[in-house]
């Protein structure tokens, strides 16, 4: 009798789920990951680009120019203000750190005025704090900002980064003269990094530059990269964050099943704590980056960040979803009347569910969803405990499989839940 009842419950769950506009993605991940033992969970850290861009004027703006001082200050704060304890580990340099030319040996070199101690000294300092250093280079002839590119220098640049003590390389794709050179360059640099013998996380922008021409080969990309950018740079605006979410959900059938331990889809930086997002929009970015198993690379000024933004970025329950060891990327389950429902399977048969209100007029909106339609019909079969994590934590108690979950969502805001069987 128990077996028959269980089968009936499962069947009913699938029937109920079909009553809604629903897209469920699933499938065992089969592609091999880059075998360097790194990024078993999404990378966490800080990256300068969105907030500080290519500011090289240290005379006029000494506190916000791209210099060793900036990265040393961020490293100090990552330890003293609890970021390291929350899991943020990498201090990452983006474009504009280089001198305009290579040295006489053909090696990249840091700008001597802005990085007087060179990258080796900066790496030593970052390591002394128990953190890791990331750096930036480009697969083409020049970086996006016009500094020396790595084309024709992959081996020497990989060796240089290893000798400096670099722990992550963000490899951009500007100024590459052909699709073949782009693909070959990304593959070659991956192999060159591994040949150095140093553990260096490899962050690619390979698919971003392939999409205008043809669909990227994610099986191949995953074999060479630890994470990869698919879409345009994030800006400090809701339109930008929304466009990234739109692209991800529209292409989820092509990308979601390629994410997993060792390799991740990268929707770009967290801009929480800056100027462009409302509080509800910051909650949305944090919640959905967790659902998407995205690298959490903040781009903000840790010297001037509100306590509210800091609390959100350091929320241990949300970070635990992002870092869940099962390593399955979440997906958009449905969209109806400007409400989106996203879900992500977690370890120990738990699930994360996010509900986002995309309507930008009016006030908070109520939304009701059948419990049986969540988590492929099995997340709460026969019941589960539900905890709301964002925008504030609340224990919602035990819910039976046949019940509903009702919530209220602010415009452009998100409510994030954890469902688990205790």
Automatic annotation (TrEMBL):
<keyword id="KW-0812">Transmembrane</keyword>
<keyword id="KW-1015">Disulfide bond</keyword>
<dbReference type="InterPro" id="IPR035373">
    <property type="entry name" value="Melibiase/NAGA_C"/>
</dbReference>
<dbReference type="GO" id="GO:0005764">
    <property type="term" value="C:lysosome"/>
</dbReference>
<comment type="function">
    <text>Catalyzes the hydrolysis of glycosphingolipids and participates in their degradation in the lysosome.</text>
</comment>
<protein>
    <recommendedName>
        <fullName>Alpha-galactosidase</fullName>
        <ecNumber>3.2.1.-</ecNumber>
    </recommendedName>
</protein>
<dbReference type="GO" id="GO:0046479">
    <property type="term" value="P:glycosphingolipid catabolic process"/>
</dbReference>
<keyword id="KW-0732">Signal</keyword>
<feature type="domain" description="Alpha galactosidase A C-terminal">
    <location>
        <begin position="327"/>
        <end position="413"/>
    </location>
</feature>
<keyword id="KW-0326">Glycosidase</keyword>
<dbReference type="GO" id="GO:0004557">
    <property type="term" value="F:alpha-galactosidase activity"/>
</dbReference>
<keyword id="KW-0472">Membrane</keyword>
<keyword id="KW-0325">Glycoprotein</keyword>
<keyword id="KW-0458">Lysosome</keyword>
<dbReference type="GO" id="GO:0016020">
    <property type="term" value="C:membrane"/>
</dbReference>
<dbReference type="InterPro" id="IPR017853">
    <property type="entry name" value="GH"/>
</dbReference>
<comment type="similarity">
    <text>Belongs to the glycosyl hydrolase 27 family.</text>
</comment>
<feature type="transmembrane region" description="Helical">
    <location>
        <begin position="12"/>
        <end position="34"/>
    </location>
</feature>
<dbReference type="Pfam" id="PF16499">
    <property type="entry name" value="Melibiase_2"/>
</dbReference>
<keyword id="KW-0443">Lipid metabolism</keyword>
<keyword id="KW-0378">Hydrolase</keyword>
<dbReference type="InterPro" id="IPR002241">
    <property type="entry name" value="Glyco_hydro_27"/>
</dbReference>
<comment type="subunit">
    <text>Homodimer.</text>
</comment>
<dbReference type="InterPro" id="IPR000111">
    <property type="entry name" value="Glyco_hydro_27/36_CS"/>
</dbReference>
<dbReference type="GO" id="GO:0005576">
    <property type="term" value="C:extracellular region"/>
</dbReference>
<keyword id="KW-1133">Transmembrane helix</keyword>
<dbReference type="GO" id="GO:0009311">
    <property type="term" value="P:oligosaccharide metabolic process"/>
</dbReference>
<dbReference type="GO" id="GO:0016139">
    <property type="term" value="P:glycoside catabolic process"/>
</dbReference>
<dbReference type="InterPro" id="IPR013785">
    <property type="entry name" value="Aldolase_TIM"/>
</dbReference>
<dbReference type="Pfam" id="PF17450">
    <property type="entry name" value="Melibiase_2_C"/>
</dbReference>
<dbReference type="InterPro" id="IPR013780">
    <property type="entry name" value="Glyco_hydro_b"/>
</dbReference>
